[in-house]
Design a protein that fits this description.
Number of strands: 6
Shape: globular
Number of helices: 7
CATH topology: Rossmann fold
Number of domains: 1
Structural class: alpha/beta
Helix content: 25-40%
Strand content: 15-25%
Strand order of the largest sheet: 3-2-1-4-5-6
Length: about 230
Amino acid sequence: MKWLVLLCCLTAGASEAACRQALVLGLDVSGSVDSVEYQMQRDGVAAALTSPAVTEVLLKSGAAPVDLAVFEWSGPAHQVMIQPWVTITDAAVLLEVARRIRTNPRVTGSPTTAIGSAMGFGVGLLDQRANCWKRTLDISGDGQANTGPRPQDVAAVPTDVVINGLVIEVANIQELSAYFDAYVIRGSGAFVEVALGFEDYAAAMERKLLRELQSLALSAAPDDRPSARSLQ
């Protein structure tokens, strides 16, 4: 009888520790992003996370929570955490995350664009959340890589990790989208969302978050994680 009680306690503890999805957002702050565009990107992430539609999905009653982390990147050695890992348990936590994203001071980094390095950093963060049923990395960017390892050469991506892209463009939209599609995104169901300039960033981020968060069936178990598609 004692072992039955112990088993029930262990099962309850495992359920409480369940993580529906680990989500990492990597934001491009290279030299092509001026101070106005930088703040528009920060505000856009905060607005998307706290929009009614995204809030409803994040805080869905009865669902395991989502773990979130946010970092900025530019050159090969410039990756700065804005929001360390946090479990989104309620509206108060979500509002505090949005406040932190909006107000954290900018750390001046390299003017170059090292997408491959950002991918490696983001995957390293997801390694800290191996228990989550789904693990997703988002890379936002307004240009192609021009330093560091090429995105297509980043091979150490676990099979259960999905990398999506959000491209920010005013011109040559199809060119940058095709670049991200060919060399950046990874995994089953991976996709590229497009923001038509930084003014459209909040709406594009909201569309992307809804697509990512709603793609996981709430009944999914760890064995149901998506497999990676073959590298391009």
